[in-house]
Write a structure and sequence with these properties.
two-stranded antiparallel ribbon, 13 helices, mainly alpha, 2% strand
């Protein structure tokens, strides 16, 4: 057995934490695994038409959501608190895009055309940066930048903000509540890294420490499952799957677990 102090989260110590999580949050673990299997079955039922932008994008985003959900589930059980929150923030962003596109065909088109703007912006930044002293701009780069700029204008490509997508998805409350909290973690906000500092007060730092923990695991399971349920509702409507009863059964399950745990 390797110790956490020697190998960090690669230590086999975290295997014991997984078992502890399975026991402590047995109902949440079972719910996560059940809805994951259900989603994999739903994916096989999707009849995606290649010429339907909404269907293609929503299907791809749902696959991405499921992989992120699985990743957050794995990290959560291993006590990787901050890393779980980082993935859940990504899950929320993907959810905003999926629901906005499922509800608005024009957003599907804008979402697709955004790639011209993103490529143009990335190349422009690279050419303007100090890195050109090491790697000089080539003639091909300059020509490509002009081509992309023209394409951006032609396609009316523009950036889509996370806030805009959350509003179009009718999930603005998530953007103003849970999303900012997880963003603190992504950007290594002082309120996040402060947890790694050991001291009697904010002005006294005696050392730094890192340790696994599952004290908040149920909260993260809740966020993950709720995001998946919301995505399933959009999938169900767009593809007319007639899976409403089963989806709402999952919604009822996580709602009941939420009420049982007073700390949430």
């Amino acid at each position: 057995m390797s110790k956490f102090s020697e190998e960090g989260f690669l230590s086999t110590d975290t295997d014991d934490l997984v078992e502890q999580c399975n026991k402590t949050y047995k109902e949440w673990v079972e719910l996560c695994e059940s809805i994951n299997k259900y989603c994999l079955n739903i994916i096989n039922k999707l009849q995606v038409h290649p010429n339907e932008r909404q269907e293609c994008l929503v299907s791809a985003l749902f696959l991405r959501m499921l992989a992120i959900f699985e990743g957050s589930y794995i990290l959560n059980k291993r006590g990787m608190d901050s890393e779980t929150k980082i993935l859940l923030r990504t899950l929320l962003e993907t959810l905003f895009s999926l629901c906005a596109i499922a509800k608005h065909q024009e957003i599907a088109e804008e979402f697709f055309r955004e790639h011209y703007y993103l490529k143009y912006k990335a190349l422009k930044k690279m050419m303007e940066s100090s890195s050109k002293e090491i790697i000089p701009d080539s003639k091909d780069d300059s020509l490509r930048l002009i081509e992309l700029k023209n394409e951006v204008s032609k396609q009316k490509s523009k950036p889509l903000s996370v806030q805009e997508l959350s509003k179009k998805a009718e999930l603005g409350d998530f953007y103003t509540s849970v999303y900012p909290l997880f963003s603190w973690t992504v950007h290594s906000n002082i309120m996040e890294i402060g947890k790694l500092l050991d001291g009697e007060s904010d002005d006294t730092i005696d050392g730094v420490f890192l340790s696994p923990g599952i004290a908040e695991a149920d909260r993260y399971f809740l966020v993950g499952v709720e995001c998946i349920v919301i995505a399933l509702r959009s999938i169900n409507t767009l593809f007319n799957l007639k899976e409403n009863d089963k989806i709402e059964e999952y919604a009822k399950s996580y709602g009941e677990l939420y009420k049982k745990n007073k700390k949430l």
